[in-house]
Structures are given as structure tokens and as C-alpha cells.
Write a structure and sequence with these properties.
By secondary structure, the chain is an alpha/beta fold. The protein has two domains: 141 residues, Aspartate/ornithine carbamoyltransferase (Rossmann fold, 3-Layer(aba) Sandwich), CATH 3.40.50.1370; 148 residues, 3-Layer(aba) Sandwich (Rossmann fold). Helix content is 38%, strand content 15%. The strands form two sheets. The protein has a five-stranded parallel β-sheet with strand order 7-6-5-8-9, sandwiched between helices. The protein has a four-stranded parallel β-sheet with strand order 2-1-3-4, sandwiched between helices. It is globular, with a radius of gyration of 19 Å. The model has no long low-confidence stretch (mean pLDDT 95). Bound molecules: phosphoric acid mono(formamide)ester. The site of phosphoric acid mono(formamide)ester has 10 residues, from α2.
Length: 309
């Protein structure tokens, strides 16, 4: 396989293991490029990409922008907080106006689940989902699995536990899809109130005891509590959450093996993870961020170089 079958990257649910492996192989190449003194290639010269962000972002927005610039694309950035969305313009009108400026690809983050899928039905340009509400965050899952592959040589057979606010996490859902397609065993762990009822139907193990979850896994992917998406109180207090579900050094030292710690960011130090864990030799959090640029270069390159459909 040398090309993606999909025109857009809307979610991991829609792509095959073969397509994920192609993205990884392409990212391997771009990671080599990023380690050279000259980190830029002309692959996307004359391609114009708009990064359209309706929600806050540090890692994803900067990583996409850097990936686009490393590929020599022309880049424009849109942030809804400083745009005419504030004057009542619709999503479709906003994107159609951007596209009329001869833009080829849209990278979009939006608070509404399904917003990129809606756009894909109404516009001709390629769309990459940079996170849609509580639904999917496909490039985060790709960079997470790529980082596990880099650490262990392969994802297949590895035991990964995703810990925390599974209910409101697009990272969790995309990771579950990606890891299962790549042959990993997946567990979710968190307060029962933050585990969606349908989660068992996704074929994952469910564990409410964080110590047992850590004893089982090779890798723990620790998630942030997404207070901004919570409509009600799902646990008594952040202090109590940290006490029962926070990952700290004492807990990790009580295990009979070291485990690899991941976090998609942003970290709330002292709540879901303590600094002595986040900054430890077992954490690959900054390697995840580094790999994000190569993964996004691979996705952009492969989507821009498809055979016409
Ligand atoms: N991991 C992630 O999506 O981070 P940002 O919200 O900063 O983009």
C-alpha cells in the first residue's frame, strides 16, 4: 500500500490497520528529516493549508503548523476567538470563505462532535480532524501509538491502560480504535461516573482500581479531567480524584515492574499525575509531542498526494 484510501482524516474508526502502518512508515521517514540540520522538504510546495481552530490548543495547532511549514506548504491560521464567528457567521460560511481564497486543505478543531464530518459532506477540500468535542482526535491517537511502537518495537500484544476521564475524552476513543486495530490489549480505568456505559461494547477491559490497572499494563496513558466539558460533578473533589486515581511515584514504586507513562497534555500537575512521575525517566510525554510533528507531516503528505477520486 502506498496511498491512503480515505480522502479526509475524520477519525481512526474510519481507517484500516494497513493505512495506520502506512502513516507510521511515512512518519519514520519524516522523523529522519526532522533530525537533519535542514529540516525542510519541498513535498507540499504550492499546497495551501488553513488551520481552523474553534477551540483552544497549544500542541495540536503548533504541531500542525510546524509540520506544514516543514513540508513547504503555505499556511494560514484561523482562531474563532478573533474572527467574524463572534459576529454570528456560521461554520459552513466561515470555511467556504476560507476555501474561496484557494485553500486546498482544512485542519479543524471544533467543540461539536461530528463538525468535521458535517463539513466533509458540504465542501470539496480535504479535511483533517484536529479534535471534535468529545468524539475523536485521530492524529493524537496516531502519535500515541507511534510513540509506543518506538518504545517497544511494536504495538501488537502490548497492554495499555487509559486512565481518567474516559467519558469526555476524544483522545480515549481514538486511542481505543487505534490500539485495537494495531493488536494491543486495551483497558480503561477511572471513576465509574466517568466511564461511559457503552465502553465495554468497544471490547476493552474495565477496571475501577487504579493499582490493579497499573499492575496489569505495560503502558499507562493518563488523561486530564476535562472540567470544561463536564455539565455536573462526577466526583466529590479534585483532591479526592487525585487521592484515588492520581498517578504518583509512591504508587508506581509499589509495583514490581516499571511502566511507561504517557499523557496527551495539557497536564494538570498534582491532579491526574504528579510532577515526579510526569518528569521521570519512565514518562515519554515530550517524545509524544516530538513525534506529533512527524505523524502530522505524514498525514498531510499522504492526504495531499492521493490519486484523484
Ligand atoms: N493533546 C492536545 O490535543 O493538546 P492541545 O489541546 O494543546 O492541542
Amino acid at each position: 500500500m502506498s496511498q491512503l484510501k480515505t480522502k479526509h482524516l475524520l477519525g481512526i474508526k474510519d481507517i484500516t490497520e494497513e493505512e495506520i502502518q502506512l502513516i507510521f512508515q511515512t512518519a519514520d521517514h519524516f522523523k529522519d528529516v526532522l533530525n537533519r540540520p535542514i529540516k525542510k522538504v519541498p513535498s507540499l510546495r504550492d499546497v495551501t493549508i488553513a488551520n481552523v481552530f474553534f477551540e483552544n490548543s497549544t500542541r495540536t495547532r503548533l504541531s500542525f503548523e510546524l509540520a506544514e511549514k516543514r513540508l513547504s506548504a503555505d499556511v494560514i491560521n484561523f482562531s474563532s476567538s478573533s474572527s467574524s464567528v463572534k459576529k454570528g457567521e456560521t461554520l459552513l460560511d466561515t470555511v467556504n470563505n476560507i476555501l474561496s481564497m484557494k485553500v486546498d486543505m482544512i485542519v479543524m478543531r471544533h467543540a461539536s462532535p461530528g463538525a468535521p464530518h458535517f463539513l466533509a459532506k458540504h465542501i470539496k477540500a480535504t479535511i483533517i480532524n484536529a479534535g471534535d468535542g468529545t468524539h475523536e482526535h485521530p492524529t493524537q491517537a496516531l502519535l500515541d501509538s507511534f510513540s509506543i511502537r518506538e518504545k517497544f518495537g511494536d504495538v501488537a500484544g502490548r497492554k495499555i491502560v487509559i486512565i481518567g476521564d474516559i467519558m469526555h475524552s476524544r483522545v480515549a476513543l481514538s486511542n481505543i480504535f487505534a490500539l485495537q486495530k494495531l493488536g494491543a490489549k486495551v483497558m480503561v480505568c477511572g471513576p465509574a461516573t466517568l466511564l461511559p456505559k457503552y465502553v465495554k461494547e468497544l471490547g476493552v477491559k474495565v477496571e475501577l482500581d487504579v493499582k490493579k490497572a497499573l499492575e496489569w499494563c505495560d503502558v499507562a496513558n493518563v488523561l486530564r479531567i476535562q472540567l470544561e466539558r463536564q455539565q455536573m460533578s462526577y466526583f466529590p473533589s479534585l483532591r479526592e480524584y487525585a487521592q484515588y486515581f492520581g498517578i504518583n511515584k509512591k504508587l508506581l514504586d509499589s509495583l514490581d515492574k516499571p511502566i511507561t507513562i504517557m499523557h496527551p497534555g495539557p497536564i494538570n500537575r498534582g491532579i491526574e499525575i504528579t510532577s515526579d512521575v510526569a518528569d521521570s525517566e519512565h514518562a515519554i510525554i515530550l517524545q509524544q509531542v516530538e513525534n506529533g510533528v512527524a505523524i502530522r507531516m505524514a498525514v498531510l503528505y499522504l492526504l495531499a498526494n492521493q490519486a484523484p477520486v
